[in-house]
Amino acid sequence: VFYEGFTAVFTNLGNSGEKGPDSVGRHYTGRDHDGQVTVSNGIQLWTVPHTGEYRIETIGASGGYSEDSVINGGRGARMIGNFMLTKGENISILVGQRGQKAYSNKKTGSGGGGTFVVRGENKPLIMAGGGGGVANMTEQYSGCDASINTTGNAGYNSPFLSGGMNGYGGQTDEPNSGGGGGGGFYSDGENTDISKGGGKGGKGFLAKGKGEGGAYRGGFGGGGGYRLDSELPGGGGGYSGGSGGGNKNISCGGGGGSFNNGTNQQNECCYNTAGHGRVIITFLH
């Protein structure tokens, strides 16, 4: 049977930054899902080719980091589950893009985007959180990484902040300070005062921005933007967003939360050390 060997790998389509790709181009030419994918507002729309059980693997993007940080940005999660899909139905796929380093000599990074797989337009199947941005970190801290739980993480040195819960965006510090919170499934991450160099929260998947990263330079998939003047990092996007970073000297934004509604789950918090997200869909039977 033709579909027994079907494996489709969905990528960022060569794109980076706050906004998602605008076309498939030739990235999937000759692949198993050639001709099955269109793009709308950065989200890839896949038409299921055959009814059956599929294994879906989602990987969140890593966060950005400063030049003098010993570690890379927070790590993206990997979530795996099996799902029954029906021929002809539409699956919405947002592949998270990695958080970015700050411009020039600014010593911080933005949050990485979460990776989302959704039935139709709004029914969550499986999502992997993105890693938080990192500023001046000398060792790994678990809060910077994405979580396999639905709640987003609070970053390092951010004692008064928390990640989002139940599919909502992450917090940031008082209006005039802090990096932007990571976007969640239902809502944006919190903003700081953009006019004063504040970090903008990442956009939620279902919000108007369709998962855009926050300014400055959050990764597509809800990555929070870093705060420009005080160099505070942004939170990771995901099912629930991570918090923005709240300390100038050594801090990180929290990693985004994840979601898995599949069977035979395999979930890992700290998989993607440096790079964009991706989705791998394999037909089982």
Strand content: 15-25%
Overall mean pLDDT: 91
Task: Name the poorly predicted regions.
Answer: none
Placed side by side, the strands forming the largest sheet appear as 2-3-6-7-8-11
| Span between termini | 10 Å
Major beta sheet summary: 6 strands, antiparallel
Q: What is the helix/strand order?
A: EEEEEEEEEEEEE
- Number of helical elements: 0
Radius of gyration: 17 Å
Q: How many β-strands, per DSSP? A: 13
The computed structural class is: mainly beta
Share in helix: under 10%
Coarse morphology:
elongated
Biased composition (Gly residues): 177-186
Region (Disordered): 167-200
Report on the architecture of this protein.
- The protein is mainly beta.
- The chain has no helices and 13 strands.
- The protein has a six-stranded antiparallel beta sheet with strand order 2-3-6-7-8-11, with no helix packed on it. The chain has a five-stranded antiparallel beta sheet with strand order 1-13-4-5-12, with no helix packed on it. It has a two-stranded antiparallel ribbon with strand order 9-10.
- Strand 7 (115-119) and strand 8 (123-128) form a beta hairpin.
- It is elongated and about 55 Å long.
